[in-house]
Amino acid sequence: MTTNETLWFRDQHPFSNLTDRILPELAENSTSLKIWSAACSTGQEPYSIAITIQEYLKNNPGIRLNSNILATDISENVLKKCREGLYDEYDLSRGLSWQQKNRYFDGQSGGMLRIKQELRRSIRFEPMNLIHSFKKIGTFDLVFCRNVLIYFPKSVKDDILQRIHSSLRTGGYLLLGSSEGVRGLGDMFDMIPCDYGIVYRKR
Predict the structure, then answer these.
(1) Which strands form 86-87's sheet, in the order they lie side by side?
(2) Tens digit of each residue's pLDDT (9 = 90 or more) over 82-98
(3) What is the distance, to the nearest Å, from the Cα of residue 153 to the centroid of all Cα atoms in its chain?
(4) Superfamily of segment(s) 13-202
(5) For residue range 94-112, what is the model confidence (pLDDT) as tens digits?
(6) Contact, 173 vs 201, CB < 8 A?
(7) DSSP string for residues in the chain
(8) Quick one: pLDDT band at residue 184, thresholds 50, 70, 90?
């Protein structure tokens, strides 16, 4: 199953929470950060994460934080587009400011823009079906799994969330879509209210 519906900085609040809450906390305890963007579609989410981290480090020059981002999707076709990092006018009109276009993209022919090589190199794109095992991908400080669980029945959704829990380090964060939650799995996650909605932290 694949819908490929996405945009840059979707809903905005997850990226505000990343900047204001999650990155400062994780940077206190480590100089290395592992992030998983599950069901990444055509790449806007993982590239938005990478841009958010770059802007955070630019605004906090005393902090040293190396990020390792894994982005996965079931579709090889969208992963090819992710790796190319090439977007047309319609893609670019959904969630990006002109400042971000100028700072993080290089112009191409036909009005296309390509995400800068530095950002493309910071993300590893791999095929993955969320109903399969996560054991080979290791553990993470932060998982984005947004706007995909709504398409699964509850039993499958709960199984995916339990396996995401196992893939998070203790104290690691899970960010879900606005209409998604961890109902019935509250013993695994603490619900953390933020200025911009809720994030979930592994117990």
Answers:
(1) 86-87, 113-115, 105-107
(2) 999 999 989 988 899 99
(3) 23
(4) Vaccinia Virus protein VP39 (3.40.50.150)
(5) 899 999 999 999 988 788 9
(6) yes
(7) -------TTTTSHHHHHIIIIIHHHHHHH-SEEEEEESS-TTTHHHHHHHHHHHHHHHH-TT---EEEEEEEES-HHHHHHHHHTEE-HHHHTTT--HHHHHHHEEE-GGG-EEE-HHHHHTEEEEE--TTS--GGG--EEEEEE-SSGGGS-HHHHHHHHHHHHHHEEEEEEEEE-TT---TT-TTTEEEEEETTEEEEEE-
(8) confident
In the chain, the amino acid numbered 49 is I
pTM greater than the 0.85 cutoff? yes
Domain spans of the chain, in order of start: 13-202
